[in-house]
Amino acid sequence: MTFLAIFWALVTAYFLYTFVFEIGFFPYMNMITVVVMIGIGADDLYIYCKVWHLAKSEKNNGVLEKLISDTLRHSVLSMLVTSLTTAAAFFANFVSDITAIRCFSIYAGTTVVCNFVLTVTWMPASIMLFEKWCNFHFCRNADVYTGEFSICYCLCKVPHKVYYLVCDWSRIFFEQILPCLVIKLRYLWLLMYGCLGICSVIVIFYYPRLKLPSTRKFQMFSDDHLLERYDFHVGTMFGFEMTSDDDDSNPNLPITIVWGVHATDGGDYLDPNKKGPLYFDDGFDLTTGEAQRWLLEFCRRLRRTDFYLNVPGMQLTNCFLENFVKHYMKRQCSSDNPSDSTPGVHYSKYSPGPRFNNGHISAFVVQFQSNERYTHDYQHVQSFYRRVNRWVTEEMLRAPAEMRNGWFVSHLDFFDLQQSLVVGTPLALGVSLAVVSVVAFFTTLNVLISLYAIATIACVIVVTLASLVLLGWELNVLESVVITVAIGMAIDYTLHYGVAYRLSPDLDREMRVASSLSRMGSPVAMAAVTTFSAGLFMMPSTVLAYRKFGTFLMLLVSVSWVYSTFFFQLCFAPSGRKGGSGSFTGPPRTAVREVRASTWTRRCTPFLSPR
């Protein structure tokens, strides 16, 4: 049923994405959502099943319908919080300027919401049907009349023994050993993982640092794939493929100034195939004498700048108006050497110059060569762009009214991608962190728990990113999504423990830590195991995106489980007052009575030091 719920969540989200949101572009990156849902789709199920078994173990648990009501009342909040934070982390990527990231954010966030709806509706109904109609006991006990054991009993005997043995050891570990291990060595865990977080910050921002992509080639497959071996290894052996920054074959960055068209993108931000219309500048007019004189002087001043490359002779890619005045206007109307193709040579849609619409000059393009070589270095290209753009902007302020809306552009496609990653990633990270902070506060209604949760998430993020940096990752499109999504996925385990700590009936801090560990330790660990397994199963893939996302999942869930278990709750143990310190309201009395009546709190008592 879990796999069916994940499948229907993906299908429902695709229906909403295509027919309700009417997004016609479905990028390849959206397929990563399948990997994400395999990893996190069963997390809420583990929480619900744990609460279900706790409710069944209580005395006077009532009829089946009451069990469903009680379990939903105690588990929906935790499942809603984790689903909301994960979906918010995905939706936060919509602030990016990259179309593929925007489409992925919509589809992935919608899938998480659909999965939550199916979990709180379909899963309880399925469990109720199983308990009522499918939970037969004849495979476990002898026949009532004959006393003989059935074939089913013989087949299920060994699996049942293994199951109960694993359950017993799991109960002992999560209810006795783990709380004792966490609380007894709390100062060691706090010091060790705190220092690890500080060292990770140094790795990310100082050395070796998280770097921008150094090549414009988008790698689709793993390094050992035949297609990628040519691009990254064999291709450099051919002269026409030599594109290193020190090679003279690299072209110079052009300096292109455009008039008559506004620098406005009218295309569909969710579909790169829809370019949109051009927005013409109605005030542009090159036919006036003042505009032509200023344009000629503008071209002369540009030639005197320090970023202009002086190329002797007549250049068709330079200022068209200069060639028109100096060469074309001085020629005779008729020539002894007829050249019927002369207009096609000197004017085409691929060369700079005037652009006509209904017999009028609607746009004008001037292009010069700069002395800067094309490079993938972000800082170098950014310095060139800012220097030239600042000069062009200052010149436009002195231009006549009909020529003031010109703007500068060059071969900046790869630089624009880098710029979008530099600006969009921190912005999406901030939006996701803000949403997570608000959700954490309103879920726990406790200032200290919220602050400690944010600190834990920060440590999880920096440690995970530092590990990826040491693995040689660069900040590309997939990595940008990974950084933002990490917040929503990293807070799940922390919030599960935070809600359990908040609802604990004990006033002693150590007892609260023990009760939250014994109650949520098992489902959180199982959720981590399934997510880790989903990432592990992606590693044999030859598709680089799947392999990288699998690496990210394994690192994230490992670090998140360690920090939420050994760091988050221990922040309360050394400091603060007992009871509901920092809380706006106390725990509900009904929850206190129900949790106090359970047996898992008393099991931890012999292993804790008295206060």
What is the element layout, followed by pairings?
Blueprint: H1 2-20, H2 32-40, H3 43-57, H4 64-91, H5 99-134, H6 151-184, H7 186-205, H8 226-234, E1 252-259, H9 289-303, H10 320-328, H11 342-346, E2 353-357, E3 360-373, H12 378-397, E4 407-409, H13 413-444, H14 447-470, H15 477-502, H16 509-537, H17 544-568, H18 589-597, H19 600-604
Antiparallel strand pairs: 1-3, 1-4, 2-3
Helix pairs in contact: 1-5, 2-5, 2-16, 2-17, 3-4, 3-16, 4-5, 4-13, 4-15, 6-16, 7-14, 13-14, 13-15, 14-15, 14-17, 15-16, 15-17, 16-17
Provide a descriptive summary of the structure in words.
GO terms for molecular function: transmembrane transporter activity. It is found in: Membrane. Residues 1-129, 449-574 form the SSD domain. It comes from Pomacea canaliculata. It is a multi-pass membrane protein. The protein has 611 residues and is mainly alpha-helical. The protein has two domains: 2-209 and 417-607, no CATH class; 252-331 and 344-410, no CATH class. It contains 19 helices and four strands. A four-stranded antiparallel β-sheet has the order 2-3-1-4, with helices on one face. The longest helix is centred in the first third of the chain and has 36 residues, at 99-134. It is elongated and about 110 Å long.
